[in-house]
Amino acid sequence: MIGVSGRYxxxxxxxxxxxxxxxxxxxxxxxxxxxxxxxxxxxxxxGYRDLEVMYACKANNNVExxxxxxxxxxxxxxxxxxxxLLGLKLGFRREKILFTGNNVAxxxxxxxxxxxxxxxxxxxVSQLRRYGRLFPETEVSIRINPGIGAGHHEYAVTGGVTxxxxxxxxxxxxxxxxxxxxxxxxxVHTHIGSGILDAEPFLEAAKVLIGVASQFTSVEFLDxxxxxxxxxxxxxxxxxxxxxxxxxxxxxxxxxxxxxHVKLRVExxxxxxxxxxxxxxxxxxxxxxxxxxLKKVFVGVDSGMNHLIRPALYGAHHEVIAxxxxxxxxxxxxxxxxxxxxxxxVLAIGAELPEVEExxVLAIxxxxxxxxxxxxxxxxxxxxxxxxxxxxxxxxxRRRETFEDLLSTSLEV
Length: 413
Ligand code: LLP
Fold this sequence. Notes:
CATH class of the largest domain: Alpha Beta
Distance between the termini: 45 Å
Oligomer: single chain
Number of helices: 12
Structural class: alpha/beta
Bound molecules: ligand LLP
CATH topology of the largest domain: TIM Barrel
CATH architecture of the largest domain: Alpha-Beta Barrel
Number of strands: 21
Largest sheet: 9 strands, mixed
Strand content: 25-35%
CATH superfamily of the largest domain: Alanine racemase
Radius of gyration: 23 Å
Number of domains: 2
Helix content: 25-40%
């Protein structure tokens, strides 16, 4: 559980402030219990009897979290050869990993299929042709672009007119290639976007997917991808997962009755880890200025867009909580800004905060998905450590980078 009690923000049974003291700031902190309960909620909501959750590890590839999900029986959605490799290394079953690349080079397919033995989910006609040449008479999965897209930002929409997937009017080409190379299409996949809070686009896409799947005779699974949104703002309506799950199960049940049994796969990333993580940062500077007679406050912290790029890249909203002043009246409206040399380096715009001062710790909430995994060394700054909390236990699972780490790939220093 991550939540406020009295003055304090707690992560599991621990005060966020104390974690910040022990491990320093900035630091990513994840609550394992939240990961487990999100996973269970998803499985319970989708009542289909043969469901496989394929965790989208691009959202968060923390090894402790991956092991937790592996132990729960999760499979893995891998979008690079390295994600697939990491999954295998951590003991995810080979047949429970699906490689869904985009603009995939032959070398990558040779490695993923040829060396790792992982099923390839093909994203284009060109890739299918190259796959067929490399691996004739094998199994393959195809990613369909159903012409329906949704997402929290235009960059997070992948269905419709985007670079992703095989378009519906290319299906004849697919069939010809499948025949020519004697491939077996065992999976039909789609992923329409990310951060979707409305059930309908998923259901519309699932119907299209079913239409496509019914044209192949060897289909073993339907994969509707990820994209299940979570509320970031207070008062935002969550996705009705019960409804979506029930409707999806009905659709796939119907398909199974007509065309033979198939598994249903889903690839959640954000839903599993988004609300399970926070980024703890420390206030290092408070700048109060007057602009055209109006007061403007910049709360400067020891992190920034290099550690959490979502606000800068998508204008994404993350709540900010002063971890030891959580119940103080919120009298200040401030932009929480980082230490990177860009004006777009924001973590929150117009955050409602209590009176904060240098030294206070702030929690950037719901930072478990696409936080660390999208971080960088911009401005030659190290990435923060990652800590996993489980009840009253706390464990460092990835150390803070050092100056030596930053230079480790430079050949001559
Ligand atoms: N499956 C495929 C093939 C994907 O490309 C993705 C995400 C997922 C599953 C998982 O989507 P999720 O359940 O997490 O929404 N960086 C953006 C999100 C980009 C998502 C990319 N693909 C953000 O921070 O909002």
